[in-house]
Structures are given as C-alpha cells and as structure tokens.
Design a protein that fits this description.
Helix content is 56%, strand content 0%. With 63 residues, the chain is mainly α.
Length: 63
Amino acid sequence: MGRGRQRAKHAKIARDLKYFSPDTNYRELEQELATKSDVATDTRKHDAADDDEDEWNSWSDSR
C-alpha cells in the first residue's frame, strides 16, 4: 500500500474515533467511580525530612 493510501486510511480511522460517541451509562459510571475512590486513597505516610533532601545533592559542587 502506498504512503498516500496508508495516510488516508489512518485519517479515516482517526476521524471515525474522533466523532464516535457511544451511549453513556451514567449509573454504571457513578458506581465505578464510587468504588474506585475508596481504593484510590493514599495511605502512605509523608516524611517531612525527605523534603529537605535534594536528589541532585550528590552532584553539586562543594566549593
């Protein structure tokens, strides 16, 4: 397949994806987001001492 035909095919596919609008099930979406918000909470502790350390400190000049 030549470059022109290949480019036209990709443009057609991109156009189809751009203007494709499936029916949205808002109830399912709401349930999915509600369950994921419980799991997505960050339980790691933040150590304030880590903020003071510069990750590039070992590369800095000590002059």
